[in-house]
Amino acid sequence: MTDQPHQLEIRNLHASVGDMPILRGINLVVPRGELHAIMGPNGNGKSTLAKVIVGDPEYTVTEGEVFVDGVSILEMEPDERARLGVFLAFQYPVEIPGVTIANFLRLAMQARKAEGEEVSFTEFYGRLTAALKTLEWDESIVERYLNEGFSGGEKKRNEILQMLMLEPNYIIMDETDSGLDVDALKIVARGVNSMRGPNLGGLIITHYQRLLNYIVPDKVHIIVDGRVVQTGGPELAQRLDSEGYDWVKQLAVAGD
Amino acid sequence: MTNPEVANINKDYEYGWSSPERYAVKAPKGLSREVVEMISKAKDEPQWMLDFRLKALEIFYSKPMPTWGADLSGLNLDEIYYYIKPEGFNARSWDDVPDDVKLTFERLGIPEAERKALAGVGAQYESEMVYHNLKEEWEKLGVVFLSIEDGLKQYPDLFREYFATVVPPEDNKFAAVNSAVWSGGSFVYVPKGVKVDIPLQTYFRINAESSGQFERTLIIVDEGAQAHYIEGCTAPTYASDSFHSGVIEIIVKEGARFRYSTIQNWSHNVYNLVTQRAAVYGHGVMEWVDGNLGSKVTMKYPACYLLEEGARGEVLSIAMAGRGQHQDAGAKIVHFAPYTSGTIVSKSISKDSGRSSYRGLVKIYEGARGSKTNVECDALLLDEEARTDTYPYIEIEEKDASVGHEATVSKINDEQILYLQSRGLSEDEAAGLIVRGFIEPIAKELPLEYAVELNRLIELEMEGSVG
User: Fold this and answer.
1) B-chain residues within 8 Å CB-CB of A47?
2) Domain coordinates of chain B in residue numbers?
3) How far apart are CA A46 and CA B57, in angstroms?
4) What DSSP assignment string belongs to A185-227?
5) pLDDT in tens, B56-108
6) How many domains are contained in chain A?
7) Are B429 and B455 a contacting pair, CB within 8 Å?
8) Which ranges carry the ABC transporter domain (chain A) (predicted)?
9) How far apart, in whole angstroms, are the C-alpha atoms of residue B246 and residue B250?
10) Nearest Cα residue in chain A from B416
11) Can you give the CATH number for the domain in which A226 is found?
12) Considering the domain boundaries, does residue A107 fall inside one?
């Protein structure tokens, strides 16, 4: 395994919901150490890509492969994928009444341990204190029930808290910026940037360039009609911001 | 006596083992005047109690089996042993409890819990209390915690003043059978103003096959006093059914506060038909915390009769019904006086072909002005086969009163499972965590050790139930 590339590779991925094809041959390689932005008009497959990688049973993969560090993951349960280091920051995190964040975080950390190994108090608490500080959150938040009654901003911040606690190798952020004001956006970005380094790769899915001012991507890919139609650097995001999506839609038509 | 063969009908039930049967007295099968007389004689009772029992027996015969609730057609009352007295009973030291029986309770963790966290412990084995002890510090304050038999002997006047006043034998068929053959249970008196701040516990164990257990508990919490009483129950798993029909009577006097918690984990061959009721006086507070996990059929509706102004009653109920189980559980809040209030929170979980029903009565009599009760019942279904029903009865005779009722039925939602799985929890762990969260509002009312036990039992029931 040691000679396997440390990268997230998506190879000719086709996926559908029911009979409706949504992804029509996505190809992407994201090495660890790089964050790639995924942009594109709504309804063209950005979130589907996130859900397929994480293993949402609502979506059916009809063709293609996804490799994490050279390991094919499409046959795996979502929890096995998580334990390989894949983390999705959900666009709409669900509420789990009666389960405190603290308890949940401890169980999720425990799930990553080998049999017989326990999450120690110092490990848990040390990581928690640091994460809460980064996110400017009071410790009392972890006694609240998971996402229950949280505002949109709190839910997104809670996704980043989990990300900081679980130390994934590949993050997928699904429109984490939607519904956030500038202050919350900065806090979320600070959380992500604090993790950046040679061990972290991932996809930042967003409709707007705004988030990318704070989390500067190494590459930008544009998905239209279930395919990557354009790849470039951060300047591509700025072009979308000033010119809109009409010109990339033309690219998709040209590609057919 | 032979060691009965344990039928492997529920291999996941961890308390399904049994101990060899060795008994001082075992009445013949079935219910009769002779059996009642034999019980009374074995207990060396006063004449009034024998008369009470015999009258209750007549009432029992005169009442039909109830058909409005769970299916009781499988319960054959002629095939039950109504009285089994174990060898050696009512010890104050575990050293004096016979080895088999002591081992049983050690395997259930009772002596250890007593040392750690309890003010007093009672242990009932078959028909009799084999152990009953109260820590000295509470005894000094005048707290009484005895077997019901010793209560009758040592406090005859107090006993007679309250016995069968809250649940008379006429109340229902199972209260009548209990009144006729009652044996074991606790007698508790908490004097005025005394606050017992750690729980008293009684543990009930049925060991013999086809046996009945009819404990009777009488608890008097005097003015301004406070206490918490916990009962736990298990039985071996046999092919034939057992029958448990307790009667719990509680008197909560003015300004007193009392909580009665049950973690019922009978094996899945026990019919559990219990009458629990509290009479609550001025500004007193009664809380029932009722966890029904085991048994084949349970019919149990802890009740608060709010008799004087400002009295308050609360019932928190959790039921979990798996394959072959029917938990027909609920609550009753009856307002007799002005400005009385009640809360019922019921949470049920059903899986496989299990069925849970919420059956509750809220009654507000004329003149109980300014009274109110809120009812919230939430049901969680784990699969397509599971079933849940709600039977809320609301009777309001007073104009100036209010009753709120909210009911929800939910299924474990795929998005919740995916969310938790995406953080590394397996599908089973995810479902277990959601269920634990569902019951958390009630579990958090229990002392920590019991909340942990409740969660553990639910996890055990949950294993392999999703997917």
Assistant:
1) none
2) 23-300, 425-467
3) 74
4) HHHHHHHHHHH-STT-EEEEE-SSSGGGGTS--SEEEEEETTE
5) 999 999 999 999 999 999 999 999 999 988 876 677 888 888 887 888 888 87
6) 1
7) no
8) 8-250
9) 13
10) A94
11) 3.40.50.300
12) no
